[in-house]
Amino acid sequence: MAEVNKEKQHISLNICDEKIDIYVKGDEEVYYRDAAKLVQATYQKYAEMFRGRRSERFIAATALLEIGVKLQMEAANKDVGAYNSLLSRLTAEIDKVIAD
After folding, report:
1. Which residue, 41, 43, 44, 35, is CA-closest to 64?
2. Engineered SS bond to 36: which of 13, 29, 47, 74, CB 3.0-4.6 Å?
3. CA 11 to CA 73: how far, in whole Å?
4. What is d(CA 40, CA 17) in angstroms, rounded to the nearest whole number?
5. Average pLDDT of 6-32?
6. Where are the alpha helices (DSSP H) in 9-55?
7. What is the DSSP letter of 26?
8. Of all residues in the chain, what percent carry a pLDDT higher than 90?
């Protein structure tokens, strides 16, 4: 186990009044820190809207849902399947015209 930690470094993140201590690869640290900022900002947005009226668990779940939706939308926007299908059809049509 010491060998695994040898390649990783310890970082502490503060999210929603919780200190989270984790070990991450050095080249991934920036992603963890940026993700912590995103989670904290999203949580804070919903906390300002709902604190005192809804539970902390509801606030956290709503923040996680928003982040999940953004992730899914980004993944869908990067889906190149439709482009590849269109390109294949165009290529087939061009090949047909050239052959004729």
Report:
1. 43
2. 13
3. 29
4. 9
5. 92
6. 29-50
7. G
8. 60
Tokens of 7: 């390649």
Whole-angstrom distance, CA of residue 34 vs CA of residue 28: 10
Longest Cα–Cα distance of the chain, Å, equals 73
Cβ atoms within 10 A of the Cβ of 34, count? 10
Considering the entire predicted model, what is its pTM?
A: 0.69
pLDDT in tens, 24-54: 999 999 999 999 999 999 999 999 999 999 9
Residues counted in the chain? 100
Residue among 5, 68, 58 nearest 38 (CA):
68
Inter-CA distances, 26 with 5, 12, 20, 66, Å:
11, 13, 17, 28
